[in-house]
Amino acid sequence: MKKYISIILSCAAVFFAASCQKVPVCNQGQGYLSLGELRLSVDEEVETKAVAAGGNYIISVKNASGDEVLHKTYSEVISSGDKISLPAGEYTLEARSAESVPVAAFEQPVYGTSKAFAIEAGKTTTVGELVCTLLQCKVTVAYSDEFLATVTGAGSTKVSVTSGYPLEYALNADASYDQSAGYFAVSGSTMEVVFSGNIDGKSVKQTKVFSGIAAKQWRQVRFVLKKNEQGNATFDIEIQDLISDAPINNDLSAAEDVIGDDPDAPKGDGGITLVPDYEAGCDAEIADLTNILIVPVETRDMSIKFKATVPGGVKKFTVNITSTNNAFVNAIAAADATNLDLINPTEDNAIIFTVVPFPHGSELLGQTSIDFELSAAQDAIIAYPGVHTFTMKITDQNGCSKEIPVVMTVE
Fold it and tell me: Can you tell me the distance from the alpha carbon of 411 to that of 409, in angstroms, rounded to the nearest whole number?
C-alpha cells in the first residue's frame, strides 16, 4: 500500500516538473517572472475564524500602464510553475480572494495584497511569500442591555462608509437585532451611523460621524443608555473594540486608535494539544513533533500516530502544507491541498488523503479527541528530500484556537 501511494505522488511531481522545464529562450529586452515560489498566507488578525488562502485566490499582474499581463487563480499559478516572459520594466502583482471588493455587503470579506517588482532583461524575478489582509473595514452593531430594555418598536441602524451605499442593520420590536458583519470598501476615512427607531414609545433619530476608518479594522457600533443634564434617559452611539478601550466621539479632529481583535473573544488555546500517541503504538523515536526524521521503510517501518485533544470540541480544523522541496510543493498544489480544510475537503483533495491520511470530513465537528494514523505517509514522503511542514490550526466551539506545526524531514 505504501508503494502505491508513493507512485501516486511521484507521478504528480514528474508531470509538473516536466512542465516547468519548458522555459522560453531569452530575448533581448525580455526578462522572466517565476511564480513557482509564490506562496500566499492570510493574516487573520481581524477575524476570529480561520480564512485560508485557498486555490481560488485571483493572481493578477499589471504593467506600469495598468495593462493586465497575467490573470490566473492561485492553484493554476502554483501547479504550472511556469516562468513568464515579460518586457523589462515595472510591474505590480495583486492577489485577492475575489475578483472585486464590493462597496458594501454583509458577510463578504475580501482578502488581498499587492507587491511592486521590476523585470530586468535576461534575469529571473521571484515574488516569494505574500501575506493577504482584509481589504475592507468590518462593522458590527450591538446594543447594551439597558438600551434594549427601552425599545418599544422596530428600528434600524444604517452604516455608510461610501456615501449612498449604506448597510441597514435591523432592530426588531422584541429587542432582537441583526448581528451580521458588514464589510465596507474604504474610499475615505469617515463612517456615518444613522439610527432611527422607537424608544420609550417615542420615534427617535440620531446621526453620528466617526473618523479614522481604514481597511483591516473591525469597528463595533454600540448603543448605550445615558442620562442628560436634566436627568432624563437618553442614548449615545459609541465605537467599541478599541485597543485603548476609549470611546470614539464625533470630533473628526480627535486622534483614534486602531481596532484590533474582538476584546470579547476567548483567551488562550482552550487546552488544545497534539501529541504522539504511544499507547496506540507510535514510535518511541518520535518525541518532538517539530523534528520527525523520516527514514526508508527498509531501515524502519515507521508507526506515526498522534492524538489531538480538543476539550471545547472541534469547530474548525485546517492544515497548511509547506516544503523546501519544489516537486513536493507542486504535487501538493495539484491536489489543491496547500491549505486543507479537514472538515470541508474538496474533491481535488482526495488524492492527498491517500498520501498523508489525515482524518477528515464533517464527523470531526464537535469531536474532543481525534486519532491520527499517518504511517502510510512514510513511503510517499521519503521520495522528497527536504523539510516538510504541516501546520495544523484547530479552533474549538468556544473560539479558542491553536496552531501546531508537525515537521517531517527527509535527509
Answer: 6
What does 226-277 look like in DSSP terms, one character per residue? EE-TTS-EEEEEEEE-BTT-PPP-S-TTS--PPB-S-TTSPPS-TT-EEEE-
Reported as type and span, the H/E element at residue 326 is helix 326-334
Phi, psi of 142 (to 5 degrees): -140, 160
- DSSP letter at 344? S
Same fold, 2-20+27-135 and 137-240: yes
- Residue ranges of the alpha helices (H) in 131-174? 145-148
Q: What is the DSSP track for 44-85?
A: -SS-SS-----TT-EEEEEETTS-EEEEEEHHHHHHH--EEE
Q: What is the pLDDT of residues 33-51, one digit of tens each?
A: 988 777 777 775 555 333 4
3-state SS, residue 14: helix
- The CATH fold assigned to 137-240 is Immunoglobulin-like (2.60.40)
- Domain ranges for the chain: 2-20+27-135, 137-240, 273-410
Task: Categorise residue 131: left if φ over 0, alpha if ψ from -120 to 50, beta otherwise.
Answer: beta
Determine the 3-state secondary structure of 331 from DSSP.
helix
Please, what CATH class does the domain formed by 2-20+27-135 belong to?
mainly beta
What are 254-302's pLDDT values in tens digits? 223 333 344 445 668 889 999 999 999 999 999 999 999 999 989 999 9
The rounded distance, in Å, linking the Cα atoms of 135 and 159 is 18
- Burial class, 85, CB count within 10 angstroms (exposed 0-12 / middle 13-18 / buried 19+): middle
How far apart are alpha carbons 51 and 74 in whole angstroms? 15
| Cell (9 digits) for 179 | 448581528
Q: Output the nine-digit C-alpha cell for 155.
A: 428600528
Reduced to 3 states, what is the DSSP secondary structure of residue 348?
helix
